[in-house]
Amino acid sequence: MTPDTAMEAEARLRAHPCFYSGAHRKFARMHLPVAPKCNIQCNYCDRKYDCTNESRPGVTSEVLTPKQAVEKVSYVRGKLENLSVIGIAGPGDPLANEETFETLELMKKEFPEITFCLSTNGLNLPKNADRLKELGVRFVTVTMNAIDPEIGARLYDFVMFEGKAYHGEEAAKILIDNQLEGIRRATEAGITVKVNSVLVPGINMDHLPAVAKRAKELGAYIVNILPLIPVPGTKFESMRAPTSKERKQLQDECEVDIRQMRHCRQCRADAIGLLGEDRSAEFAHFTCATKERDIIMPPEQKSSYRIAVATSSGKGVDQHFGLTEVFRTYRFEDGKVVPGPSIDVTEEQEIPLFGPGHRTKIEATSDKLKGMDAVISTKFGLPAIELLKENGIEPIEDSGDLEAAVRKAVASIRGERASPSSPDQATAE
């Protein structure tokens, strides 16, 4: 596969939803769960199978053989016209599984026009960077949580390297050295690199700016700071997740050195579709993916609508649902957008992003928004989407001009609430 020209490389970047923020609402990605084995044990990771209701890295409903992966991609492409990226992200570490390379070889032959990417802990990246380039991999994500072995020793239980198990600082140093060298070699090979860093309060929060700076020095394109998910059964199950404020402050600090990914959804190893609209369950057994959707009976049409907006200025939609302290509300009636009272959820911002408390935070926020027909923000997490819908509130992702977003939201609500045979399919004026 010949190297991309500068123009081709830019086009691929702008069509990758995980590397370019403007792409995540336009282009879909598909993760192939062909790599079950892992060569390290992170203290926050538990790779579960057949868990369709859980969305986090390492989770998948099935493990595919390379041949099955090709068949599934061929099927899904017929259903998703905007599929731009095929990635391998586990459920273990792709570079610890020879099936990863078999899959990439088949993909290169069958789908040469698709962009290939891969996520790894980086342990085996130095010796495989050139091999990945030859197989057409153009994007690699390396999860690097520390560059100090003393800190790394608190994050990893063990590292398996060249047939031997390592623990403590020795294990962390081996992993970190390979991560740094792997990032350097990958970028020199012309592969675009993203560094993921899991934010663990009390362990690496103050250290991550140094990680981000080092990533930039090695040629990484972007850094993605992921909040810890305290998973039951792991060593970190009792650790607290960071708050949204803590994460944002850290992102702002690190952005001085390197661009930050702020739209990550911490996807499953078998994720399919747009970020935030995972359709993996639909394709879990792709030969049976033709089941009909439930038919929603429409309630009576309304003449006015109340919309809450995540906005910092009152002029544009510019905030994430979970980071918004004050929602401004608007009433749409007789073709006009009229400002209403604000809804203050400031006190909920001090609750961690994950864990039991986070559910309480979303519930409290959703309760305060009851009575709204829709909430507009730049992004929503899946739990927020579920709770809002339970309260009869439509979560709508949008950005830009506020009044235009409100009108589009009303049009969307009318479209979803009207039955297919209803004569009232009018959009907002």
Give an account of the 3D structure.
The chain is built from eleven helices and 17 strands. The chain is α/β, with parallel strands linked by helices and 429 residues long. The protein folds into two domains: 283 residues, Alpha-Beta Barrel (TIM Barrel); 114 residues, 2-Layer Sandwich (Nucleotidyltransferase, domain 5), CATH 3.30.420. The strands form four sheets. It has a seven-stranded mixed beta sheet with strand order 9-8-5-4-3-1-10. It has a five-stranded mixed beta sheet with strand order 14-13-11-15-16, with helices on both faces. It has a three-stranded antiparallel beta sheet with strand order 2-6-7. Helix 2 packs parallel to helix 3, helix 4 runs parallel beside helix 6 and helix 9 packs across helix 10. The radius of gyration is 22 Å and the shape is globular. The C terminus is likely disordered.
Overall pLDDT confidence: 80
Shape: globular
Q: So, CATH architecture of the largest domain?
A: Alpha-Beta Barrel
* Total strand segments: 17
Task: Report the span from N to C terminus.
Answer: 51 Å
Roughly how many Å is the radius of gyration? Answer: 22 Å
Strand order of the largest sheet: 9-8-5-4-3-1-10
The amount of helix comes to: 25-40%
Classified by CATH, the class of the largest domain is Alpha Beta
What is the CATH T-level topology of the largest domain? TIM Barrel
Residue stretches low in confidence (pLDDT < 50, at least 5 long) are 49-54, 287-301, 417-429
How many helices? 11
